[in-house]
Amino acid sequence: MIKHIVLNLSLGTREDSAIDYAVSLARVFDARLAGIALVYEDVPVVLGDGMSAQWVGGIEELRKEVEGAAKTAIARFEQLARDAGLAADSRSVHTSFANTGEAFGRMARRFDLSVVRQAEPKSGRSDNLIIAAALFDAGRPVLVVPRARREPARFDRMMICWDGSRSAARAVADALPFLRRAKAIDLVTIGEPTEGDEMPGFNIVEHLRCHGLEATEKRIAAPDTDVPHTILTQAASSAADLIVMGGYGHSRLREFVLGGATRGVLAEMSIPALLSH
Q: Do 9 and 137 share a structural domain?
């Protein structure tokens, strides 16, 4: 069951699509919603080496600007939650840029689901750090909302990306509250199946059937295919409302880095994606 959701509030964004989506999502599940604004204490680090000289004497002004952006994001979140009649909480959390992901990941462990906005392309923002932390550190699923998303949450048609992996299995289990609301479920496998991976009576379609869910299998046997592009093309052609997939990555000095397929989907997605690890 989804009864407690945490949302990362993007700062300095005029229209944060994730707020509207999270509010509609909380209404669907009659869930309590928490909005978290992460405020960097080390503002110059965010600006990077290209910080102009005029900022040297204006760091305090910039800190106030960041604080103001957090207050604006929280105010918009609280207004939308009130208008929707939701039970909601909000707060700003001060942290360093380097610890942004860790801070959000720790908080997300206390919720059923975290919601994060898709990262801006070619930016130094911490969105990808937060997505990675929510995915690898929280022990909970993360739902990533496309930047340009305008429609509310709906789950009439779902698409599961299945490759028989541990992460894919975890994603299917975490997605059950969503899948139960679907009118149609597509289970998409890309590439050839591993020998012995699927056996009669012991396959993922039968598992879903035991939960009262009917899924249509679609196998794309293309050995040299661009996996992220294929996933997104299939999701668009089937008019999927949500993509369900395992989130992949590897650890580099205790910092998880998103794998190629996961990174590719998150970079180009136009449909919300539920990821688990």
A: yes
